[in-house]
Design a protein that fits this description.
18% of the residues lie in helices and 22% in strands. The chain has helices spanning 24-30, 58-61, 66-73, and strands spanning 2-7, 13-18, 50-53, 82-84, 97-100. Strand 1 and strand 2 form a beta hairpin. It binds FE2/S2 (inorganic) cluster. FE2/S2 (inorganic) cluster binds next to loops.
Length: 106
């Protein structure tokens, strides 16, 4: 179990409880966090679950895999700590994780 803080582009925070093993994307969808579209349902093929991981957390979360990297490469909103939230699995170590939402999901 982990608490995850989603911060909208306008600064509004949504702190949600997420079960281990689910994706960060599913945690957002389950709690109606706005700004995560997740059009492909978590198949790493749409990039509309884009989040920017807080710099303090990127070392724990880790960097994208090859397929995720190729999806992020096509996203003009990409930042240095961008991840696709469907590719991040919740685990105890992520308790307190902070992710920011981009202005637009593309
Ligand atoms: Fe489509 Fe994450 S939900 S890439």
């Amino acid at each position: 179990m982990a608490k995850i803080n989603f911060i909208e582009h306008n600064g509004k925070e949504h702190i949600v409880d997420a079960e281990n093993g689910m994706s960060v994307m599913n945690a957002a969808i389950d709690h109606l966090v706005p700004g995560i579209d997740a059009d492909c349902g978590g198949e790493c093929s749409c990039a509309t679950c884009h989040v920017i991981v807080d710099a303090k957390w990127i070392g724990v979360v880790g960097r994208p895999g090859e397929q995720e990297e190729s999806m992020l490469d096509m996203n003009p909103e990409r930042e240095v700590n961008s991840r696709l939230s469907c590719q991040i699995r919740v685990r105890d170590e992520l308790d307190g994780l902070v992710v920011k939402l981009p202005q637009f999901q593309i």
